[in-house]
């Protein structure tokens, strides 16, 4: 984040919001938890219970922790909330797929999030762009673009 922030133009930096919106409070915690669980179910679909059980087998608090991360970091605010940085369901999956693809060695997680991106097609009110990103063609484009960027970055490392 530090490098990204350093690379931003000053006018962009000054245009970013400065108030926290993703902090649990007694008034909003239930809304956050609901959004986190809904996002997890939207990503994993019929495999949600299987994924929760697998996470539980690793550590009894892991599934709840993941849902809390989804709630505070990834889940979109309600559509009626015009919030800067409020990514759509499809774009959230694009970010997850890109991160997991660059990380490597996490094939099962990557596959789950690729399927999650494909499931984003079923979210009501998608933009044309989001619907395309959630198509098989869109997913292929995301993976190929990440691979192309990663290849370019790796070739620059050897200079």
TrEMBL record:
InterPro entries reported in the protein's UniProt record: AhpD-like, PTS1_Protein
GO MF entries: glycosyltransferase activity
Domain of life the protein comes from: Eukaryota
Keywords assigned: Glycosyltransferase, Transferase
Protein name: Dol-P-Man:Man(5)GlcNAc(2)-PP-Dol alpha-1,3-mannosyltransferase
């Amino acid at each position: 984040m530090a490098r990204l922030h350093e690379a931003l133009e000053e006018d962009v930096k000054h245009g970013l919001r400065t108030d926290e919106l993703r902090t649990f409070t007694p008034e909003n915690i239930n809304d956050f938890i609901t959004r986190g669980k809904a996002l997890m179910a939207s990503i994993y679909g019929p495999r949600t219970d299987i994924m929760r059980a697998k996470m539980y087998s690793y550590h009894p608090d892991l599934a709840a922790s993941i849902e809390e991360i989804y709630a505070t970091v990834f889940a979109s605010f309600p559509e009626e909330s015009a919030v800067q940085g409020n990514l759509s369901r499809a774009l959230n999956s694009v970010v997850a797929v890109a991160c997991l693809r660059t990380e490597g060695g996490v094939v099962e997680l990557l596959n789950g999030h690729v399927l999650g991106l494909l499931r984003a097609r079923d979210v009501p009110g998608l933009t044309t762009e989001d619907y395309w990103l959630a198509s098989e063609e869109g997913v292929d484009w995301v993976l190929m673009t990440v691979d192309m960027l990663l290849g370019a970055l790796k070739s620059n490392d050897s200079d």
